[in-house]
## 1
Amino acid sequence: METERFETVVIGGGQAGLVTGYHLAQAGQRFAILDAHERVGDAWRHRWESLRLFTVAKYCALPGMSLPIPAWECPTKDEMADYLEAYAERFDLPVRTRTRVHGLSRDGDRFVIESSAGRFASKRVIVATGAYGSPRIPTFSRELDPSIMQLHASGYRNPSQLRHGDVLVVGAGNSGADISLDVARTHRTYLSGPDTGHIPVDIDTWVARHIAFRIIRFHGVHIATIRTRHGRKAIRKDLAKGDMLVRIKPKWLTAAGVERLPRTVASRHGKPVTEDGRVLDVTNVLWCTGFRRDFSWIDLPIFDEAGEVIHEAGIVRGEPGLGFVGLPGQYSAASAVLPGVARDARLVVRHLLGQRTASVTPIAV
């Protein structure tokens, strides 16, 4: 099998991979970006139809190119997808779409990447697959009656996919709350999961976008970082608890007729059961239970006992030439989202190219 050789290979062609490619291009590197999707931006394009980002366009933009919408508007998922595609075209980023990576190992002084499109070898590899991996769905889901339609949030598009009858949305984070409002327009809806709090202001008002969001963004990008004790504590808390609701407010859910329930913890006679013992007679279950990072394809000694990557702000000291971009809590509380990913990509690229050697406090993610 013929092996293509590059100085650097970036795995993942979402915003994390594209902004990494931008910094590599600025440094004059010969590199390739490998992505499993058919088109650049598909990771956004294939999400639910009503999705709109929390972050205004001004802070969603990647280096060198603004979004083609008003700076203080929040883009839709399709606007974000089209922007990423245009970004790759504008900077002539070498994205290889329909290239799913299924193996990463080392052979001497080179990394070897096995993919659906062949084998690649490179001196450096940057894994930029981001915060999303394999859907996390409880094992008891397999015990639910086959007549109940089950969808993970990653497969949900709109209410027309659902069967007639009641809907249980499991997971009360931002995705669960957003999808619950969408579904409640046509179905009786239950939202199951603990209250993680919410931002008290309406983020779609002028005051919130121009003042409150600036403060929240500054804290997430510059204050809550792994360089300070406060930042490390904030990051660990966020990773353990989950994000508070940003756009959706609990009173909006109540007004829409969404009934809040405790966690869904088991199945009984083929029906979901909440932790207070309530058995729900529903015909649809939407799992808004997040994702688990799946690095099973990486055959390198870079994981701790819990299977988490051991790194320092995305740099893997035990494997020279290997870096990560887009991991939750990688450098700041904003590392896995658009406002923080560009800074992280720049730091990782500079380090791997020998332009930066400063050490930071280690943190597993």
Note: Residues 203 and 247 are 6 Å apart (CA to CA).
## 2
Amino acid sequence: MAASLPRVSQPRQSGSPAGADRRPTTLSLFTGAGGLDLGLEVAGFAVAGCVELDADCRATLAQNSPWPVLENGDLTARGPEDVLLELGIAPGELTLVSAGPPCQPFSKASQWRSGQTEGMAHRYASTLHSLVEIIEASLPRIVLIENVTGFLRSGSGNGISGLDVLTAGLSRVNVKNDVRYQANVFTFDAADYGVPQHRRRVFVVASREGGDFTLPVATHGRALAATGGTRFSTAWDAIGDLASCDDGPAATGAWAKLLPSVPEGENYQFHTTRGDGESLFGWRTRYWTFLLKLAKNRPSWTIQANPGSATGPFHWSSRRLSLRELARLQTFPDRWAFAGGETAGRRQIGNAVPVAVGELLGFEIRRQLLRHSIEDGPLTNIPKQRTDCPAPEEPACVPDDYLKLRGQHPEHPGAGLGPGAKRRIDVSAPANA
């Protein structure tokens, strides 16, 4: 059977300032829509304050929670002592600093557009330095940081990764303050712990005392289900009850009418010579999420923050997902509303950490690093698994307007040989080459 995840039974309070009760406290940096913090709160943490630059995110936090939210959330423009003073937090008082620094410097979307990630050359990368400054000023017992997998790789510029900058900063903090922050770095897919979405992200946990931190064993998956354990949570588990009452926006753009011809769980590659549809595109010549459609009986693919008109995942009924459906796939509770309208809501949801991931890590931090007694049990923010999943939708025929694309199309030439790799080579080649 799948291993149980840690749970605890105790009263929940929220929005308390640091030190106001006996619960562990967390200061949230780059809070976004609050997914990580909601999960930490379920795990027993009191949110002592939120620091967020985006006005729509701040409005979302203000209308949904009692957490203190700084009006000026630009960490690069104000000193760390000023932030702590405004929130009434004394050095050494915090249990946890949690942060999800902007991922644009390290994202795959950036790599697709330019052939490489910008890494520490990106204008947002300075937020990592601001994060280290807050850590030094507050000296929390524990640090928790989330980012995309590109955080571990160097991009353009000086070849330094986000992790390099973070670990170097923690080393300086250690020397100056006689502490022992040591980065425990791990990458995992949220679907392995019951989130109805494949979302692979990097997490860093560091304790002021230098303790080790490890992930619990996965609780969901095909291999576990094959041996009597728990299968992945699926899109149907999460949003099946919304299918008849929550119609999302229609698909738009040049490819919208082609979308119904793509089967559930497929993308544009269905319409290549290696797929079972028409030969309309070259194999692997488009980005993976191009015309990507959910399958009811599988987890969703990663929710995007700034999708184009042809960027999935789309609903199995060939429309865009509604904000509530997107939020469910990120394990937000239905009570959580997103300010700023449709586009702002999609951006906030796509950038968020799934609430269930915050819950998982919050309980593990309490158990492993704070030595709290935690009862075993399932996470509360993952969907209940259903047994009434319908058969896949039947794909439509390709409209005549797209049949003119039918023919032989060149395939992607292989790893290291595509246009992105060529752009990287062109950028790095010596001027006299």
Note: The chain has a mean pLDDT of 89.
## 3
Amino acid sequence: MRVIDLANIKVLVAGAKGKMGQEVVRLVENSQDLELVGSIDHILVTDAENKEFSNLADAIKMTAADVLVDFTTPTSVKANMELALRSGISPVVGTTGLSSTDLDELDELAKASGIGGLVAPNFAIGAVLMMRFAEQASKYLPNVEIIELHHDQKLDAPSGTAIKTAELIANQRQAKEQGAKGESETLVGARGANYAGFRIHSIRLPGLVAHQEVIFGAVGQTLTIRHDSINRESFMPGVYLAITKVKEFKGIIYGLERIMD
């Protein structure tokens, strides 16, 4: 297992030319205790001298990285994590689309490798608090629906944040199937996805970044808990926290809130 120099954590960024990847590159380059040792993206031509790589395998061979930050796609994230873990590199992942089975398998691999990794549906501190508040509210207001809104280039729906929120709510909420008895959809999908008896709705439009509201209803009242990421800088404090904390544990941690307490 590689010993990480906390004064100089060496970072690879996968998906470096994407919108989130570019923000991560700026974060690392502007942090005194982080060093960018490689930008990875399929549109790049491998050039080790300029720290640019077309694939993760080349980057690992030509650098001595401590942490991989991955903001790629659901189709590549698991393979990237497996390669990183087998190479002694701790992954910090914001790419969504990993199943619970995927996470279990990656957790076993991380523990076998003696290192930690973190997968977070959302790196915005405010979004983590929104999820926590929704979890607390669901104990008292079990009638709830989730609306998540993202830019129209997002590939998966519902978002990882919505799924994580739903999991937290389901763990606290009294089990019940919402909606009128005999309810039907005149257009398939109009009521959204059913998760443990309540609904999740996904909106995809240009001009959006990442937004979510959780709406609770009760007799004579409603409660709405909403978080908005206005720009992608909002995720960077959470990414920085994950990069600097990931060496402190073994196995895969799911959710930024697990390292915030």
Note: The chain has two domains: 9-119+233-259, 125-230.
